[in-house]
UniProtKB/TrEMBL annotation:
Region (Disordered): 1-70, 553-583
Transmembrane segments: none
Native species: Anthostomella pinea
Start-end of Acidic residues biased regions: 568-583
Designated name of the protein: Uu.00g140070.m01.CDS01
Length: 583
């Protein structure tokens, strides 16, 4: 062929013309002629175009300009593609968690229950009354002991007329593979009793559906029935599931009228139930319910501004050390808010800092991280510290923290006018975040900051100038504020009342004081605490040390036997293998 080098054209299946090809018996006469054909430049590829409007898999597809063949598997993909009904898929996903709960009971391992709970986030958008009714109907039989539980689940979602024991079409078409077993059982499938873990998991799905559909009254009544049933059971494999049920019960009560902080809110009537659950959890050493209920009670007290009761709860209870990380973060967050209201800013800063560090990095926990960061910023301002600018530039934080950024700017400069303007412009945002009452305390800090800036800028300044710069009402109020700042150690200066001025002292070397050492000590203490918590959170397989000890003993016995055989002359290097270097 012109324009191409003979013997270099690609042919079908990647075989060149200048290579020997093993053919079948019919083409055995052509064996060995590949080189000659390559020299003469003849093309051995024969392309037969497929007929129009036909799709036959026996005919090869056409080759391109260079002779390469493009395989078209689109028809095969279309043949094998099976469309899955979303309802069937959701039902299968729900039932797949039953096996995890069975393993959690059999192995007494709560990690399988937690895996089932984590699947709720992907299931909640697909839950409907029909899907839940079908799952409940196929899971329970009319003769089972849990039939009353199934009826209560169906009534909660408005499907009380659905009969129990009905199977789907796929389940009815199942054939027993063992005819002998079928004959023994009389062609009847044995009904397996549903474990309480499955009951509670389906109940949580019902709670999630009622909450997402905003049926708060129905959800509250159903949750009351569910918590009463949980209280009557004493199974450690139900701990994580029961904690989730109490959590949704609290959410339902928070949405009922009158809303908090009204003293007639239903959350006030929820407290005896939570306190009873806490007492029972402590007696049973139920860590999950204990940690969850403590967090819910603190949240309950904060919603109605009962700070003294929340402080008494913290004093008379001990939060479990091995609680889940999310519960620890929430507990520290509420502790920080309570301590900030009680004017214990140092403890509040420690708790809120730990809460922001323990907050999950997922998008679902972004709201919690924002709320904890807002309270932390206000507490740092109340302590006289200025937050770092990088905090306001974090991802997904810049827009939410913009009002607090303006607040920090006003406090840092000590401009009282800008501070009051910022509060007036963003008062609704601060009230919604719950930080408004704390921000109002910052007025004295703004004044102190302004006095500190002036003491650093001027060696001597009159009280009249201080009054004008800080927008104070009179020189007497300026004199009182300056005297209080000197007494509190905010500034190092002297006040001359006769001549009406403030004289600053020379500023010494800060590195000659104990302040850098104390800051360094705080960082070391935080790192050591983080290391200790990480070690406590590590998980190890059960009885793994016994298995390793057994394997080590067996290895030592094999070494002794091998050494004895070598000593007796029964083994040599060839018997031990080529990699044996010698004993």
């Amino acid at each position: 062929m012109p324009g191409k080098t003979p013997g270099k054209e690609p042919v079908e299946n990647g075989i060149r013309n200048n290579q020997d090809v093993d053919m079948t018996d019919e083409k055995s006469s052509m064996k060995g002629k590949g080189k000659k054909a390559g020299k003469e430049g003849e093309d051995m590829t024969v392309v037969v175009p497929p007929p129009k409007n036909t799709k036959q898999s026996s005919q090869p597809p056409p080759a391109d300009a260079e002779g390469d063949v493009a395989m078209d598997d689109s028809d095969k993909v279309e043949d094998f593609e099976v469309k899955v009904d979303p309802v069937t898929q959701t039902i299968a996903d729900i039932k797949s968690n039953f096996a995890l709960l069975d393993r959690a009971v059999a192995l007494f391992d709560s990690r399988f229950s937690l895996r089932a709970l984590r699947s709720i986030s992907s299931l909640r958008k697909r839950l409907t009354p029909d899907i839940l009714a079908q799952v409940i109907s196929e899971t329970y039989s009319p003769s089972s002991t849990s039939a009353s539980v199934a009826k209560s689940l169906l009534q909660a979602i408005g499907k009380g007329d659905v009969p129990l024991g009905s199977q789907s079409g796929a389940a009815e078409m199942e054939i027993d593979s063992d005819p002998k077993a079928a004959s023994k059982n009389g062609n009847k499938k044995e009904t397996k009793e549903v474990i309480p873990e499955v009951d509670l998991f389906l109940s949580i799905l019902v709670q999630v559906y009622l909450f997402d559909s905003k049926q708060f009254e129905v959800g509250s009544n159903f949750s009351k029935y569910l918590t009463d049933r949980i209280h009557s059971l004493n199974r450690r494999t139900l701990d994580s599931l029961s904690a989730k049920a109490y959590y949704y019960f609290s959410l339902f009560c928070e949405q009922l009228a009158p809303l908090p902080p009204s003293p007639q809110s239903p959350i006030v009537g929820l407290r005896p139930i939570l306190l009873t659950a806490l007492r029972t959890a402590v007696l049973r050493k139920d860590t999950d319910i204990q940690a969850t209920v403590i967090v819910l009670l603190l949240r309950n007290y904060l919603l109605t501004s009962h700070i003294s009761q929340a402080d008494l709860l913290i004093t008379h209870t001990q939060f479990p050390e091995n609680a889940a990380n999310t519960l620890v973060a929430r507990f520290l967050y509420y502790m920080g808010r309570i301590r900030a209201i009680q004017l214990r800013y140092t403890e509040a800063q420690d708790h809120l800092t730990a809460a922001t560090r323990k907050a999950p990095a997922s998008v679902c926990a972004l709201g919690f991280a924002r709320s904890a960061t807002k309270f932390l910023l206000v507490v740092e301002l109340l302590m006289g510290d200025i937050p770092e600018r990088a905090t306001f530039r974090a991802n997904d934080m810049e827009e939410a923290l913009h009002p607090y950024f303006l607040l920090v700017q006003a406090v840092r400069v000590g401009n009282l006018e800008d501070f009051e303007t910022t509060i007036a412009d963003h008062a609704s945002t601060f009230r919604r975040d719950g930080t408004y009452s704390l921000i109002l305390r910052l007025r004295q800090n703004v004044i102190k900051t302004g006095i500190r800036m002036m003491s650093l800028s001027y060696s001597r300044i009159s009280l009249r100038d201080i009054c004008i710069r800080l927008h104070l009402g009179s020189e007497e109020s300026a004199e009182y504020i300056v005297a209080k700042a000197i007494r509190d150690g905010v500034i190092e200066a002297t006040l001359d009342r006769e001549h009406g001025f403030m004289k600053s002292k020379e500023v010494g070397d800060v590195y000659a004081t104990r302040e850098p050492g104390e800051a360094f000590h705080d960082r070391i203490r935080a790192c050591l605490a983080l290391h200790d918590e990480s070690v406590k959170a590590m998980r190890f397989p059960m009885n793994q040390h016994r298995l390793e000890l057994k394997n080590a003993q067996e290895a030592r016995e094999r070494e002794r036997e091998m050494a004895k055989e070598i000593q007796d002359g029964d083994l040599d290097e060839d018997d031990l293998g080529g990699d044996f270097e010698g004993m």
